Amino acid sequence: MNADELQRQKENIGGLISINTFLLTRIDQTIALEELSYSNVLESVFYEIEIDTSITTKPYANVTVENKSGILLSIGSVFRIESVKMNQNGIWLVKLKWGNDVQMQLKHTLELIKNKIGDIPTLFLTVGMLWDKVGDYSKSDMYYRALIENLPKDNMDTGKLHNFIGDLFCSRGDYSLAISQHERAIAIYKTSLLAPTHHLFAYTYGNIGLIHSQSGNYYAALKYFNITLDTLLKTLPPNHLDLTQTYSNIAQVYRNICNYTLSLENNKRILEIQLAHFSPVHSSIATTLNNIGSLFLHKSDGITALKYHRKALMVQLKSLSHDHLSVANTYNNMGLVYHFRKEYTKALDNFNKALDIQQKLTEPSNMGMTLINIAMVQCEKRQFTLALENLEKTLGIYKKVYSLNHPTIALVYDCFGSVYQIKGEFKMALKMFENVLKIQSQCFPNNHPDIGGTYNNLGGVHDDMGDYERALKYYYKALVLAHEILPQNHPDIELYQHNITEVKRKLA
């Protein structure tokens, strides 16, 4: 199996997988292992399939081929991926399951699809959605397009499919194609004579806003989120729960452009709506309290930030198990506040509480950000060896979960770069920041703000090395990019301008 296909299965644990051909399996594990192929290019994968034989509707048949007993799985059989792990021999073991609970999950998935898209011919749609679910976008795209070609051009359901294909392109990072699909959906809704206040318009405008937000076009994102909010408010009461997602999207954009005051306003509006609908100890309220706390930390108000995170923790300990992942996230948030206040012992204490919870859970990737947080405190304490060890652990964990050009991998390299820079190992720092830039150039638009941050980091290392001409070049690249996409009062622009002024002073 190629690495990309295996990666999709690793990222889809708990999700469904469909086979598009008849598949012969072996009952005897020893025989199956003997037939396993090995390659220097492809990954060796061994499937272990658990089938509930008490169910009368069977996607399989018992067969004997060349005196070897086996089970023939039929085309279209759907299984749940239980786990994907490598054994000591370098073979990937993938556990699949078929049973009543899997069929219920499939039924639930298809009902959700039907609710979103309506009564569209189901063959192309079902197969396309299953390929989409496992991340094989080329196949799902083929089925979606085949379906669209057989639907009227001005049909409302066709518009819904354009929305789905827009989501598909967005998940690949093809933002311009994604937006064009959503715009085609809007055009179809208009020709279908839907009322301008119809929820499909709000849904589609919200999708366009999310794409702009992901690609760093924050002002365009705000425009579409506000259109979404205006559309919803024309048909929903002002405290309707469906409004909270749009307020959350708006709050996130304001946070990204460092307008923390307006981000707080929108988060407090979410809290008001939630308190009108939920018990005061509902876990959703804890999430919002955590978001508000993080915003106060961005405003350098550690005392108020800690107050909100403690409130969130109190809610969670009353509504969730004490070993819940959300509790770990709150300990992480509190650790970040203590880190900001340079109370490193308390910071590490909270990060370790988070880590203790995460280690009890089955998914190691949950520990990644906590290990990064611990490493950055250790870096502040000049415990560079420990910091680098924790970052190595994190990188190892994330490489098993994400593709090598995923932004999360770039984040780890960025932390490596910071540690090496503070340690004075400038060549290693440059190498790490160059790795970050390489990944960002593959998964972000050329004018994404994060790329500007990496240019600034590269400039900072050259600055520390005394190579002021090259430092100035990178600082200017960061500033030009920031002016393209960020508000003129954004702190990043002020930082880049300050760095340029300082380097020019050194060159004078």
UniProtKB/TrEMBL annotation:
Matching PROSITE patterns: TPR, TPR_REGION
TPR repeat positions: 328-361, 410-443, 452-485
Keywords recorded for this protein, A-Z: Repeat, TPR repeat
Gene3D superfamilies per record: Tetratricopeptide repeat domain (1.25.40.10)
Residues that span the membrane, as ranges: none
Keyword Kinase set for record: no
UniProt name for this protein: Kinesin light chain
